[in-house]
Amino acid sequence: MKTFLTLWRKELAAYFLSPIAYVVMIFFLVVFGFSFWLLVSVLVQGPAGVSVMQELFGSLFFWITLLVAAPVLTMRLFTEEKTSGTLETLMTAPVTDTEVVLAKYFGALGFYLILWLPTVAYAVVLRAFSPLTASVDLGPMLGGYLGALLVGAFYLSVGVFCSSLASNQIMAAISCFAGIGVVFFAGFMAFLARSDAARDAFAYISSVSHMLDFARGLVDTRPIILYVTLTAFMLFAAVKVIESRRWK
Q1: What is the count of structural domains for the chain?
Q2: What SS3 state is found at 133?
Q3: pTM of the entire structure?
Q4: Which domain holds residue 27?
């Protein structure tokens, strides 16, 4: 555990030394802040049956920030080590492959959570200045943040896996974006599927539907199990990719 914590602190600190991380942070806050501004502009016109949390966590801006942030935050994790030649040194150190993968993953997840911290002020502002028009319930708010954590954790795990495979950061980012893009758009196939079984299968993996449910305060164990399982599988696959380098 001590080794893991040391590696985790190193990975998390590396984000604050990287200009890319600050670009992602600015992009995230600007786009999500613009989404909040649009929501407020609608709410000031009076009650219109708008669910505040659904507008925040189910909008197009939410998914843009998520689909962009995950590849950029994870593209350097292993590719930078490969380019600088430090991965071989790291692999010969008294650490396990699992500790290395988990430390890099939780470093990215930690920075991802830091990105979300300023958005808590949005709910505070809405409750303080628009108590009647934009009432914020604790349940939907916590559900929305739980959904953002689960979906983001899965997307980041895909990025870790892609970074372990790719030889440079550009390829890692592109492959991660393609992978999470396939998963994201697969949910919309539920509207095109003709059989009930296919429709139910695509609806089950629909990230958009999951986030809308979470933002309504409906916390179902099925999507939680789905994202936790998929995240664990992608990290397991990343560990196996790193382990395979020892045999080359």
Answers
A1: 1
A2: coil
A3: 0.88
A4: 2-247
